[in-house]
């Protein structure tokens, strides 16, 4: 299993009136983590889009565990939780600098043709990408919570 880590410096604009990271910003961080994972594997989402494909979110779930605040740094850990014929599920942990889990999440995606929004198999359009996801999809290591 391959895990990508991306450090995030928490900006003031990402916090609410209480100085805590506003919950919707976690979704942005998940995207940053996904993009980093894809790039670490040698692919680009922008390249997929330029070839006429999109990968919309079909489901997302976040469990908030411990608040993050302005001035702290967080690390987004991202991996392929599951990968099938049409759907890919990514897993995430968002960590405090000391390794404490701030949040866990999953997001589910499909690949679609941009002009029709019809689902297509990643295996059909990007066999190398599909094979890499099959190779690295989750086999639960110690320390990763489901």
UniProtKB/TrEMBL annotation:
The keyword Acetylation does not apply. GO terms for molecular function: hydrolase activity. Its EC number is 3.1.2.-. It holds the Pfam family 4HBT_2. The keyword DNA damage does not apply. Keywords: Hydrolase. It is an enzyme of class 3 (hydrolase). SUPFAM superfamilies: Thioesterase/thiol ester dehydrase-isomerase. InterPro entries: 4-hydroxybenzoyl-CoA_TE, HotDog_dom_sf, YbgC/YbaW. It comes from the Bacteria. Belongs to the 4-hydroxybenzoyl-CoA thioesterase family. This is Thioesterase family protein.
């Amino acid at each position: 299993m391959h895990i990508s880590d991306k450090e995030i410096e928490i900006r003031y604009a990402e916090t609410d009136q209480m100085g805590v990271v506003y919950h919707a910003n976690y979704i942005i961080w998940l995207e940053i983590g996904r993009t980093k994972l894809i790039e670490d594997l040698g692919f680009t989402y922008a390249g997929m889009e330029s070839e006429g494909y999109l990968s919309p979110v079909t489901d997302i779930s976040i469990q908030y565990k411990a608040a993050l605040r302005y001035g702290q740094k967080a690390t987004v850990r991202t991996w392929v939780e599951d990968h099938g014929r049409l759907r890919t599920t990514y897993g995430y942990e968002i960590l405090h600098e000391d390794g404490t889990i701030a949040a866990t999440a999953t997001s589910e995606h499909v690949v679609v043709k941009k002009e029709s929004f019809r689902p297509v198999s990643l295996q059909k359009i990007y066999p190398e990408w599909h094979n890499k996801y099959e190779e690295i999809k989750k086999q639960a290591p110690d320390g990763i919570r489901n």
